[in-house]
């Protein structure tokens, strides 16, 4: 376990890396004893610095490491989470400036917008469906403040689950009107199909991932709030992007969303 001064040091370091777009060496290379609990405390420090400096607010949460491929890569058997702020949200069609990021990669997923609070533990998939106002296709453009994406689970957690920016699009639809586990997703980059999947790739269903988040946060005394946006986890591979690229994500029954990069 790290002491308070180390927690603050690394949180400040990651916040400065975000602002200056200068990556830092992996925390796990420097602190052999760092735990996932330490990493979440570092994340809280990093986010607190961001909110204080910018006046942004927390508008939701993201779930990461939901697919077996990424879990195997990071040698873990659980997802992680990070905080979404108001400054991360891009409108449909609004260009994302890659020069303001370090090493951006895009993920296609489904976002949940809540109409009532969810407080774990004990939250079920049925509770998630009842608490959700609508679901929409979205892109999360992840970015790592850790050099060359050389991350272990503690590194990405400390780095706010590698959050970058996000876009929301498509049609808003109740999750009770669509089987998210079976809904097909097609991801295109510059007009070429690069990934097809279904929601079952995410914890069996994106609904299960949101239930996991509510229960995990509930044990920490944190609830999911009405109006929050919850990103349920990537259904696509991580796709490196650069200026000039454009992506389209289509979800059966939900329509499509697009993002372009300058």
TrEMBL record:
Keywords: Lyase. The keyword Lyase applies. The keyword Lyase applies. It comes from the Bacteria. Residues 81-258 form the Fumarylacetoacetase-like C-terminal domain. Transmembrane segments: none annotated. NCBIfam families: catechol_dmpE (TIGR03220). This is 2-keto-4-pentenoate hydratase. It comes from Zoogloea oryzae.
């Amino acid at each position: 376990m790290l002491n308070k001064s180390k927690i603050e040091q690394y949180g400040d370091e990651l916040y400065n890396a975000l602002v200056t777009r200068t990556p830092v060496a992996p925390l796990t290379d420097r602190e052999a004893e760092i735990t996932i609990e330490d990493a979440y405390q570092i994340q809280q420090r990093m986010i607190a610095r961001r909110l204080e400096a910018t006046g942004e607010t927390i508008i939701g949460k993201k779930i990461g490491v939901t697919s077996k491929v990424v879990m195997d890569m990071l040698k873990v058997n659980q997802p992680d989470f990070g905080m979404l702020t108001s400054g991360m949200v891009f409108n449909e069609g609004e260009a994302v400036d890659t020069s303001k990021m370090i090493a951006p990669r895009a993920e296609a997923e489904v976002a949940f917008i809540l109409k009532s609070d969810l407080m774990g533990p004990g939250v079920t998939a049925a509770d998630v469906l009842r608490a959700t106002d609508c679901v929409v296709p979205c892109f999360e453009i992840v970015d790592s403040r850790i050099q060359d994406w050389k991350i272990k689970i503690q590194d990405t957690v400390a780095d706010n689950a590698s959050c970058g920016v996000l876009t929301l699009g498509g049609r808003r639809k109740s999750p009770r009107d669509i089987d998210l586990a079976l809904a097909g997703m097609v991801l295109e980059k510059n007009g070429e199909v690069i990934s097809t999947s279904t929601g079952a790739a995410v914890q069996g269903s994106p609904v299960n991932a949101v239930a996991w988040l509510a229960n995990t946060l509930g044990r920490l005394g944190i609830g999911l709030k009405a109006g929050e946006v919850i990103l349920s986890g990537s259904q696509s591979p991580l796709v490196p992007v650069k200026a000039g690229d454009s992506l389209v994500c289509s979800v059966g029954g939900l329509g499509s969303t697009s993002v372009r990069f300058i």
